[in-house]
Protein 1
Amino acid sequence: MSFNTFGHVFRFTTWGESHGPAIGAVVDGCPPGIPLSETDIQPWLDQRRPGTSRFTTQRQEPDQVRILSGVFEGRTTGTPISLMIENVDQRSKDYSEVAKAYRPGHADYAYDAKYGFRDYRGGGRSSARETASRVAAGAVARCVIPEVTITAWVEAIGGDAIDPANFDVAEIGRNPFFCPDAQAAARWETLVDAARKSGSSLGAIVACAATGVPAGWGAPLYAKLDAELAAACMGINAVKGVEIGDGFGAATLRGEDNADPMRPGADGPEFLANHAGGIAGGIATGQPVTLRVAFKPTSSILTPVATISPTGEAAEIATRGRHDPCVGIRGVPVVEAMVALVLADQKLLHHAQCGGGIG
Amino acid sequence: MSFNTFGHVFRFTTWGESHGPAIGAVVDGCPPGIPLSETDIQPWLDQRRPGTSRFTTQRQEPDQVRILSGVFEGRTTGTPISLMIENVDQRSKDYSEVAKAYRPGHADYAYDAKYGFRDYRGGGRSSARETASRVAAGAVARCVIPEVTITAWVEAIGGDAIDPANFDVAEIGRNPFFCPDAQAAARWETLVDAARKSGSSLGAIVACAATGVPAGWGAPLYAKLDAELAAACMGINAVKGVEIGDGFGAATLRGEDNADPMRPGADGPEFLANHAGGIAGGIATGQPVTLRVAFKPTSSILTPVATISPTGEAAEIATRGRHDPCVGIRGVPVVEAMVALVLADQKLLHHAQCGGGIG
Amino acid sequence: MSFNTFGHVFRFTTWGESHGPAIGAVVDGCPPGIPLSETDIQPWLDQRRPGTSRFTTQRQEPDQVRILSGVFEGRTTGTPISLMIENVDQRSKDYSEVAKAYRPGHADYAYDAKYGFRDYRGGGRSSARETASRVAAGAVARCVIPEVTITAWVEAIGGDAIDPANFDVAEIGRNPFFCPDAQAAARWETLVDAARKSGSSLGAIVACAATGVPAGWGAPLYAKLDAELAAACMGINAVKGVEIGDGFGAATLRGEDNADPMRPGADGPEFLANHAGGIAGGIATGQPVTLRVAFKPTSSILTPVATISPTGEAAEIATRGRHDPCVGIRGVPVVEAMVALVLADQKLLHHAQCGGGIG
Amino acid sequence: MSFNTFGHVFRFTTWGESHGPAIGAVVDGCPPGIPLSETDIQPWLDQRRPGTSRFTTQRQEPDQVRILSGVFEGRTTGTPISLMIENVDQRSKDYSEVAKAYRPGHADYAYDAKYGFRDYRGGGRSSARETASRVAAGAVARCVIPEVTITAWVEAIGGDAIDPANFDVAEIGRNPFFCPDAQAAARWETLVDAARKSGSSLGAIVACAATGVPAGWGAPLYAKLDAELAAACMGINAVKGVEIGDGFGAATLRGEDNADPMRPGADGPEFLANHAGGIAGGIATGQPVTLRVAFKPTSSILTPVATISPTGEAAEIATRGRHDPCVGIRGVPVVEAMVALVLADQKLLHHAQCGGGIG
């Protein structure tokens, strides 16, 4: 993991800015012979795509992905897979305001502090638009781990959480919030609409479960499965917290309440609980890998906020124009993609050290 | 970051098992000319050392570190620094019980699933004893970042949190809990004693603040400062959650409440809040870098728990003998070390790309 | 260095096949603020471009490079620089012959042995066409090391070497062989023409000198400057040998004849010889870094050669159509590019560990 | 590959100086379950050990290796294997002369230029003593690739080459020169003795062949098998050149003379020649992997050489005391070790991407 590359043996490198001609990802280390075409990738991009409901930014991007290399006659060749998505809706708006004042909560000031200057158009490289590259790369990763099913959903928006009793996985795809609780989805419609109309924004919690991860994937001690997942998810724009299994809740438990007892089962060991979120010692236990990710509220809001200019003068800025009222919603496919990318990498790492076929 | 090595240009590799002859770390990429001797490292190890109070395991380990290379005439030479700590108190106890049944919550089953067999004595490689190597390496890292002050403390044990109003940094070193709130420390004495006596264990939350981190450190997009911190801390034994700044709390906020407004100050920009925990877009903003880490309760408890044997039969296990009633307490110096290691690496990465002296 | 990425902190990743829609490179870790546009890259690509004389392949490729990211208002931003070159002259020839029999000397059999199948059109990923990506990335690297001047030339073709007494650096650009000896260039015209007409091919030796490399660049022990140069050059298509300084010649010398004595000079130390090729202990000494690279003769020849088919039957193959009669000639800009890429990386690595500005 | 670590998934990190208390290597990524003890490592160290004949340095080092971690009940556990060799014969000689003047040909000046100062005792980190760590790590690597047989030998000393007609692999172990030609060995006795007595030194060429490498190992494009071997061998102390297969000789050939024709064989494809040295496109072809490595003459000689002091004054230095008259001789086990380390890594990388058991 270094700069703009993620992963050890299944690796991807992303490039591109919000308002450049295109963005993309190069996926390296993919096993050969895997059927792959744009139609395996596009559906995931469509989930993340902006402009599909009034609860996301109105930037219109078709997010059409092209495979430029690494696939021959419909199958991966084992060489780098170059994925490119053209930027279409680079609205020729006036960015002079963003150029003249740092937007609090955004990376504007930090990028200038680091690099001396920045591409300020639409957030440049720090735009959440880059996550489209992750989703595209993640779609390739999914093909490497057909034994695994990854499902993410929004668990809470602005502090309003789903009722676990209402959890219905089929519901996730039926509403614009990736919400598994139909009642919560109805409440969130009002909640998010209100935030959007008032120019405010809301934070959210995204949960994710990966089932089918074989016991044994993971690489102690400094490529632990949970550590890699933490890095993968904390690196998503707007994320401020990651927990595995019971996470912060585990810090309030006593040992006997946090244990995951085992017993012999028909198909191998069975666990009677999963406080650990499917990972012990950095290695998968075979239980579902579960995690939760905290997204802060979108930093772009209509309320003016005190700030400074690049030359250090006091200023004030309000973000007009297109933005997501709750960036966590579109974080769902991104979390899924990052989890897929970590798992594909760990699968190959495991095969490197401990053997096993491509599967 | 790969297997047993952490970091990009300031890197360390650890080795060793709980009951082998020794454990150690090789620190690579350290700038030359930095004064370094065992006395710069030992005090941090002494903080983590077991057996210093009745609230930690009674294993007696002097944890004396030796520098075997990389230092000449009292200064680092720029070559690898080999640090070794001999294991002294490898109690010749009977491990047949641990060999015969997987301890729930421990890595026993996962290691066997991965590697086919394991060194079961005292947890082998997955023992928290390995964190002594981290603390030793972290002590070297501190010397690389003299501009930074890192302070961690225990914020809650078993759900009983400190009162922020009582926060006194000087108090941290005065009690066996690294607790900045004298009243909480008094309560915890009872709390932890009760857990210890009943053979139970408690979870904890460790908080950490690093001040003096210059704006600009950090490396988007896949070596983001927050992502690296998340990986570093999630990889510590027993950690199940990491958050930066407001973390999961941010997910409940509205955009205007989560903003960190700026204004011109006497010594450059001033921030009016620090919800972001000192990091934006994966890059330090110059504010204190703040994070919180959730430790699960120690998995070793006296209460028997259902489990299975390596051959798959039903079994039951209770962990007698020496263990920490609250492993989070001794997590404090480990969290500090990991934060130091990330920051030293990021400082050098920043110099690689953006220039700047050794400082 | 891993799979399709080269470098530690200044890194590039290439992608693309000979007959896909495009090839490209993503350059990561570039310092910010460096003036860069396509016009800084195109001249180097033009040097490597095929079809410029009758001594190279007649494939017509304009090799127009586009910068898709990482540059804003004419300067690098510190974010990944995506470079793309479209494949234009993918002659729709019949590749069924190449699909049916492994070309000896080419990677056909090895790729199939590794991946199970391959993109056989024009060599697919193993085509020397990929080196255009290296040259493009190398052009960026040159901008990172303005203090260094890199010059490569052809020293021998088919065993016919230049006369060092005739060496004239200005001559290199005046003939189609990158030959610094006008008399040798005249001879090679006949030599290469004859090989071309008879459908044969010739090997070559490319020499390279980098002046201005400051003493101190290099990173012992496993990122030694000479080791990195060796990997960089040995990885170029058709290269079979690399030597630094006197190279294999040094193996015939006695210690006193191989010494590079030093004396005080006006601007620091002066060396009285450079048998070492400017590198000692893996670190630059400040002398010119010199190396020589052996290119085998192009494997594509008209003479039929015995081979087998993918299904294991005996076959015979002759390569008709476009190819370089001496692939070493166009190796010159590629060697220069790889040297530039290694030096840029080593410069930044040096700054990471030992400080120093971007300069 | 970075600083003091070599390899991608099978990796080793070395530490230690010539005159420190010890040197060592940490081997990471080793597959679990492989039988390993000190007796698997010691014989290879004994081959490299100094002081075994009058043709090597008279420093007396038993080079006893200890395994400090990663092995349990006689088998590797998959965790880091820490290997340590104590320095015993750190002769308490006066190093003031070496401290006061840079030894030409050595890394003295370069280290000072890089790091500002150095451990000058016996060459410090740049001493060939470090290669003992490589040999120890290489012995572990051999256990990972039981299908491969690696044999290296000295092919020429001071320009006096063996006669291929006399090649007898059994002879290699019968003389102090690792020479497969008994007649050449007899000549070299006189040759090296004369150099030793006159305080001079001789260069050498070491050749190596690895048989049993399966077709398919290797990782294009920037972890090519030949590129990795080149880096591995060029990084050995005193090495100035590396060639694969016909190497520089291939540069003098015509395409038809350099072809390696194939035909169907009883056990798969058969090659009728091996100019390529068993590697095409960076991937093994299944033929023997062959390479040659050029060692310069030992830089330590009795003849005084002009040099400068660390403060820049003119000086003269002659190296009295213990040294190898031909450092290439003891390079043989080091070349074998590096080849083993590359192959073990490539085997695991291949399994990562393309599957296959531990074997």
Protein 2
Amino acid sequence: MPLLFKNPRIITSTDDYGADVYCVGEQITRIERSIDPKSCAPGTEVIDASGKYLFPGFIDPHVHVYLPFMGTYAKDTWETASRAALVGGTTTLIEMICPGKGDEPMAAFETWLSKASGVSSCDFSFHMGVTRFDPAVERQFREIVKRGVTSFKVFLAYKGALGVDDRELFHTLRLAKELGVVVTAHCENETLVSELQSQLLAAGKTGPEWHEPSRPPRVEAEGVHHLMTFAELTGAEVYVVHTSCDEAVGEATRAISRGVNAHIEVVLPHLILDKSFAERPGFEGAKYVMSPPLRDKQQTERMWNHLRSRAVSTVGTDHAPFDFETQKVMGKPPAGDFTKIPNGIPSVENRVDLLFTHGVCTGRIDLHTFVDAASTQAARVFGLHGKGTIAVGADADLVVYDPGYRGAIRAKSHQMATDYSAFEGWETKGRASVVTVRGRVMARDGEFVGKPGTGRLVPRGR
Amino acid sequence: MPLLFKNPRIITSTDDYGADVYCVGEQITRIERSIDPKSCAPGTEVIDASGKYLFPGFIDPHVHVYLPFMGTYAKDTWETASRAALVGGTTTLIEMICPGKGDEPMAAFETWLSKASGVSSCDFSFHMGVTRFDPAVERQFREIVKRGVTSFKVFLAYKGALGVDDRELFHTLRLAKELGVVVTAHCENETLVSELQSQLLAAGKTGPEWHEPSRPPRVEAEGVHHLMTFAELTGAEVYVVHTSCDEAVGEATRAISRGVNAHIEVVLPHLILDKSFAERPGFEGAKYVMSPPLRDKQQTERMWNHLRSRAVSTVGTDHAPFDFETQKVMGKPPAGDFTKIPNGIPSVENRVDLLFTHGVCTGRIDLHTFVDAASTQAARVFGLHGKGTIAVGADADLVVYDPGYRGAIRAKSHQMATDYSAFEGWETKGRASVVTVRGRVMARDGEFVGKPGTGRLVPRGR
Amino acid sequence: MPLLFKNPRIITSTDDYGADVYCVGEQITRIERSIDPKSCAPGTEVIDASGKYLFPGFIDPHVHVYLPFMGTYAKDTWETASRAALVGGTTTLIEMICPGKGDEPMAAFETWLSKASGVSSCDFSFHMGVTRFDPAVERQFREIVKRGVTSFKVFLAYKGALGVDDRELFHTLRLAKELGVVVTAHCENETLVSELQSQLLAAGKTGPEWHEPSRPPRVEAEGVHHLMTFAELTGAEVYVVHTSCDEAVGEATRAISRGVNAHIEVVLPHLILDKSFAERPGFEGAKYVMSPPLRDKQQTERMWNHLRSRAVSTVGTDHAPFDFETQKVMGKPPAGDFTKIPNGIPSVENRVDLLFTHGVCTGRIDLHTFVDAASTQAARVFGLHGKGTIAVGADADLVVYDPGYRGAIRAKSHQMATDYSAFEGWETKGRASVVTVRGRVMARDGEFVGKPGTGRLVPRGR
Amino acid sequence: MPLLFKNPRIITSTDDYGADVYCVGEQITRIERSIDPKSCAPGTEVIDASGKYLFPGFIDPHVHVYLPFMGTYAKDTWETASRAALVGGTTTLIEMICPGKGDEPMAAFETWLSKASGVSSCDFSFHMGVTRFDPAVERQFREIVKRGVTSFKVFLAYKGALGVDDRELFHTLRLAKELGVVVTAHCENETLVSELQSQLLAAGKTGPEWHEPSRPPRVEAEGVHHLMTFAELTGAEVYVVHTSCDEAVGEATRAISRGVNAHIEVVLPHLILDKSFAERPGFEGAKYVMSPPLRDKQQTERMWNHLRSRAVSTVGTDHAPFDFETQKVMGKPPAGDFTKIPNGIPSVENRVDLLFTHGVCTGRIDLHTFVDAASTQAARVFGLHGKGTIAVGADADLVVYDPGYRGAIRAKSHQMATDYSAFEGWETKGRASVVTVRGRVMARDGEFVGKPGTGRLVPRGR
């Protein structure tokens, strides 16, 4: 059914103007000062956007949905995660395919794809996790790239489990350079983490408040410096995921000014939460355990600065949806310890609203930076053609956004499958009134209204 | 006359797509996959842009046109400069209003405005030069800002002549902060320049090749550091014009990562020329004297890096059109010396083509960075509403660009009024086929075809 | 009378050993494992130093004694200041000669010299203050250097009053380079200070707690960067006095690693006091007003780090002895304001003991660093031949130091002429048991026992 | 036999004075302005040092003597190496004990000790190589430290062969912190080296000129950054051996200013040779192959700057004596390649003279820095009690140095066992006239004159 958006204030990375937008099929086909509904195809739905923003559909370049963990799984499925995303204004997700070290990449690709295909209600793509590198898997990676998954993900942390060693890192980057794809990387030195964890546990420091001291800023900065060196010597394009602190961003920007081709991501929690949350009594801190960890309060302001200056390109979430009562609890002392707490803060649903509330409404960032960081840059860096913009020929992934809405976050009413919200009771300013994916209305005013399972793997360029 | 651009490949800061663009009156009114000319108003001119790019009109945020100098004037008038700009794809110029220390700002504003109004064929705006600061001039600056000139320009160099002292700098920045306007600054420490000049001249080093040693990178970095400190302590938004070297950019980026609100400009000559040009024998080096001076060859590659990484926001020219035979010659030894050579390299006509040739065609920057740096960022930073983009409601300032064109630069055929070109004989790849300003075709294939004097002062926001 | 020091543990910058030290006339003439008193000249005084350290006489390279201020004078004379120094283990002071802008340097030199000659009980030298620069004063500076005052002092702060402008700074440095003398510099940007002061006062912020916000770290860092640039371009050797913060030290060390010939001083207050002292209620904060101001607590630890790493060469005091009740009070609101508080924290008497107590006894620095920073480096940088070491032929300026002594600081019993101590009641560990200057015992166990007025101008090299 | 040094100019890290020095037994027992030979013990040898410097015996903290390599051995023995050292003014060597990964540390310690004991004519100590780390070897390291070898050596390069992994590095540093010993480290990322080597060889780049491109500055800076991170998180004291470039020194100094306890060494070749030597035709470049490699010419001046500013503490050699004709040749193409060339530039004999010639005589460093870097700092950092100074009670390791001597370096006449000199034909200014070790004259005017095998393991503190 064709759509006609009437009278919105259109906001993109660079523009701010009033015009009507008409969509036929899956794409935007016409933008004009004023489009007469009568000139549109029969059956066109007219969406009144007066007094509201029209944003390109938001993109979260860093989520986990299908996530096996210690014999269990993270709580979301693509059904719940994609609904949560859409209700929150996010129309495309990029998930990490995460094979075990012994698994075949192609089989993992098929598995992860199968979890989303026909199930997800929003569009999606993947970062192909490189957890080992040898000639056999290299062939598979080439094939996966051909199928449109044009980014890799490596862990400098979690060596032994998911992490790669230096040789594997070098060859992954060299392959990426050859293929023209981006390598995303989780940058923490795993040995330091594991040694510091051992020291803390040996000293009886087992609660969630010890998670941050087990991976201090310098451990993350070390990881970033390491990645930058390898990027410099291979010429590959890299993307540092979830930088949490000034030290990490500093290592990346120093490298960039030497000529390294690198991008920097921050994730929502590092902008609005700090380590005092993880220090909450009664094991509630476990809700706030993720890696890199939440940092000092003053670090969050520095991260906003880096976002405002555009040193940081993108804002993702690192959504990893574990329940508090049944999963986070695995790390509860005395039986458990903080290293057993599943990592992650569920937030795919809240990213757009909280970034708007704490970024735009406070004046920390302007509307263009908001759109650029939460949508456009993810599309550009990862080659999501047709996404991240409002232009003729682009996918009709659109968000009519009501800046006047006031609400509050509640776990009991959220779409995510987790039993808690890290932002319980937080006030939000603004909400998506209408969310479309390729011309289909998927959410309205906080409710999912779309046809489930209509999301699609986005064909990506390089 | 309405215009219809058929079949272009539209390139903006963020987008790359095919669609038709229809303009009525002065603005873009409709963008659609395919627009049937028959559906357009009678008399619509159809411009075939098949196989060509459609760019937003380019903006040069740093030019001098009306420029009194030692009893004479720079060669261009707004008539010649605006023609040169248009032929070269530039549709908006921002000139500096440059009152003497004793002049009244408002009178200077009126003078500079009168030189352009009704004369310029392209659109224009101004940076208001602050060459002294006291309560009387402050009132005038407030009035000038109200009239839409929402940026200031200060010189940390040329103290005594145009330069401001620290107290004036502080108060200018404080006023700018209050008014929400940007302060652009020429950053070189003038005392060091003048002392080094004296030392060189005393040592008999009088030729143009001594211009660069009289203002080495550290002198420029000092100026940038100084501006950054003042910006940090006043909270003002600043813009460093014509950074020429890694040291200067480094001081700015370090400040930006501390939270200073600063933008960085590079000008064309510092990307494609180096100091060996100023060392050419027989006083030919004088053609290449500007300030900050041309630097070592390796600095040019670093500036490209900073442009690619987007540390540098904009590419201007610092166009300052002095003749070689009658004006540059004023600094010819033995009668003269290098400090008497009028500064400037005429290049407003060549910026777009040379940036395309040496940037895009060599792969140093992509098409989006090209548009962003040569058009969009200037519009955003300086509040040139309706400029720097291709969107419905934006001014119909458009450039149909033929990437297949091959040409060469010749002074005898250029539009600028100067008797030489700094790029004599250089090959260019690409050329503007059609250039429009607010819906009027002003240039075609290297020829000015518009109605002279139809340019307008652009109303600017903050 | 010859002296024989028996059984000390001798500590120098680099050595730690046991030997006897014999002094005849004014110098050390013999060092030997064990010297039989019987082999010494008749009348030799034997000083038992068993269980004690023998240090070279300490040197304070940064004091003010004769200090005219707003119609009055700082409280100390050379009589009281030199006694205080000696009791505290300091045997040589370097004072700043501080002519007004209109004064003749040579006359100022004679004035300052006359205040110390025949009055001071310790040895002394001067930094020649350069408060203006023209050919007439240049001739006088050359003469003063010939007379052994081989260092200059400039203020980048206090422009208009004592400060020099950029031209004067350049020429001072160039002269210093030619003469091979060091330029010491107080680095704060004076315009920023004066503007921030005005803003604070206008906002009713008049108490001593607003002194620090009126000259934040960035203002100091700006001054250091400025000096470094000028040093780099003239090739002169420079010495940054009283750096108070990481930002200032960082600017200097970055310059040093580019090849700038610079030294860094910290003064005692910035190591052991922080700005919370200046925030004490009831105007008591005025006791702690000096410039650069006391900083955040965390800055003090960073300064200890820089001292330990030897980035900081010397520890002085910037002793400036104003009374609290009659002088500091001049800045008391409502009549006064913080800008009227005479700057300075009297500490020439306490430097050695407090550095030992808070540096050596806490393990922050070792004994060698203690001696190096509080004695040897001042001698080396400023060419105080025969000082700062324990070696045959060196001046017999020696301190027998008892590390086991425990005491407390009290204004009522100190030697300084001021009516308060910034360290009232503070515990000290260690004290000078015996202090000699050129072979004469001047102090014992906290008492001055010498012949007054026997100090001498130290002949200095370059 | 007692020694009396008459009339020398004594130079130490901090002092410069004239006095006579008397030594009885192994130590300096008396320093006095003038010592009458008649007052000395019968049989005292009087050494006339008029017009000459008296320096403390020089210390080379970084040599290899016993060095198994691919089935053969480096050419020197302790007999030849110690003679070469002594003739060149070096009285103490610190060699690395280099067990294979499977070897027992204690057995290696005994082996290396046996090669030197009773054979070396100069004093010596060792850095204990840590090439693997587990509880069994930890016990042995504790024992070795008790026996006076109070420093470790790790390789971040050569992983698989000698290198340690991150876990081993962490535990080595933690043990060192506990024991209060220093960890010296060769910092290059080995994976990058091996991958770059493979790429170059695959491209047919097999000559010695490709050695430097296989381990560029960034590879070394990465190693330094890595070590600094681990030092910061363990609190251990570290010492970076043979830094070759500004990038590496920069990573260390940045860490030091954060508070990391680190020292920096440069070795002679990186001060006076550059990579053009390794590019000499006819495989002669192989003589100049060492790791980190010789760098660009401009890097050498930066290293001198870092030495002058004292950012660099020590100057060693990394003496590794392989023959050109029989050993370096193993890497000769076509059979061999540059990775097969034994690494090292023999220079233990030339360090002092070349540092004097190229450092002191050119004015790059002064005499104090010369002594400090080539002797005193090595003694302080490594706890060589009684070494590195001229003081009563110190070992009578003394060098009478004739600054007026002019000579040239020739392989045919040098003491080292290698068949070539990297400095063939180079002019030297200055030479040791007399060299003593613990009161015994060991060399005179370029000839070894001592009793062979009288060197001793130096007992070291922490």
